[in-house]
Design brief:
homodimer; 229 residues; mainly alpha; Tetracycline Repressor, domain 2; elongated; DNA-binding
Chain lengths: 229, 229
DNA sequence: TCGAGACGCGAGCCATCGCTCGCATTCTGA
DNA sequence: TCAGAATGCGAGCGATGGCTCGCGTCTCGA
């Protein structure tokens, strides 16, 4: 057989890849046609991941769903991992965009207002392709996402800068707990309990949870519906 | 270099193999020898999962690590999934055992005590083979575990039975938030921040988060280390 | 003692997976 | 107009995975 020795390095998942800068990004699409191809691939990747699940989402199936040949896929992505990574980045960019438009300027605002804005922003962001997000979270969500990082930084800064007026002892742990609690609550609500999203009480309670913790003596946040004094 | 012709493989669609309509639970080990085999398989499965990661944990590798033939593995487990499932069950049984011995009798106890006992029990339970748990969580944590169910029931009952004396408005939402927050904090701590598990402040803050929420006006819980008045 | 069933073995079937490579088609600029 | 670059194609390679099956070994009750 003519085609001998081929550099077969494929099956080397390489547990942890610390190489962040450019994993051989293959070709960059320069024509409009190519840009559409790349887009179709990413779109299809999302669909396949949701429809078939992570394990059954092979590159062949993705290319197929995109109406594109497998060869074309590998012209723009060096390997399967790169496809998923690109998809994650795109999804997170969209979420961050939602949050950004939701938050506006937080400087100088009251703790309660900031808290509520953050929570509502997060909730809104989680409404972007929730099913896709679920799959992505379950299969790689262990690595901190850019959204997490952004939110955690925001919360940390907020908690730290107001430390004296707040009732928090361990800023580190507090930030961890808050981000974990709120982020997961949003996520679980979106994917498992969509009914909660319709209840104004949900946001209220979430705000209470946070505010009572970081400002134990502070009055409750403004509520959506008046209920309690 | 044309590598044409070639007896192209029929590439049979191979719709289905000899389908096994029922999920045959396979053999039950009856002799001591067999019980040891099953045990070795599960033990090895855990090791391989931790050492090689979920994707590289093939049945062949597991059988190999167990010092057992692949045929023997399939004598007791109908498929790979069953092995993982059995491993999960075994692990959860151990976690529940830890929690049970940790909790003792909660009846009539103070909210603070109950909260702290629950949280410490949960944390202790998460210390059982944390690396294995990390892998299991990342690849199937989406399904409710028996531990989750047990805890959720406990919390719901606790919140509901003390409703009047607590500051909670919406029991439903409150239970959801509490379980989500605490459970995920434990999970994430195990997966991403094992250092937190050793810090007493972690338990303290977690207790504060819960207690300030459900008993907003109540004094802080007893702390591990005295810090604040 | 002995035979039947429980147990253990491992080569190997077949499916699928990630990915390559030679070639066809389309676009672009001089 | 037309050459060369960019893009698209898809059969098929080598690797690996789940799992079967035929047969040898061990155990135990009668």
């Amino acid at each position: 057989m003519a085609r001998v020795s081929k550099i077969s390095k494929p099956k080397r998942p390489a547990r942890a890849r610390s190489r962040r800068p450019e994993l051989s990004p293959r070709k960059e699409p320069s024509q409009e046609r190519a840009r559409q191809t790349v887009d179709a691939i990413l779109e299809a990747a999302g669909d396949v991941l949701v429809r078939e699940g992570f394990d059954r989402a092979s590159t062949n199936r993705i290319a197929d769903a995109a109406g594109v040949s497998i060869g074309s896929l590998y012209q723009y992505f060096p390997n399967k991992d790169a496809v998923v990574r690109a998809l994650v980045e795109r999804h997170e960019a969209r979420m961050l965009e939602v949050m950004r438009t939701h938050l506006g300027d937080l400087a100088g605002k009251d703790v309660r207002e900031v808290t509520r804005a953050l929570i509502e922003g997060l909730l809104d962001a989680h409404r972007v392709k929730p099913k896709l997000q679920k799959v992505l979270l379950e299969h790689g969500g262990h690595e901190a996402s850019s959204v997490d990082a952004a939110v955690e930084a925001l919360v940390r800064a907020a908690v730290e800068s107001r430390r004296i007026e707040l009732a928090v002892n361990d800023v580190d742990v507090a930030a961890f707990l808050l981000v974990t609690a709120v982020r997961t609550a949003c996520h679980r609500a979106v994917v498992e309990r969509p009914d909660l999203l319709e209840r104004p009480a949900f946001v209220d309670e979430l705000c209470d949870l946070v505010l009572r913790y970081i400002a134990a003596d502070a009055p409750a946040a403004p509520r959506s519906t008046t209920k309690r004094g």
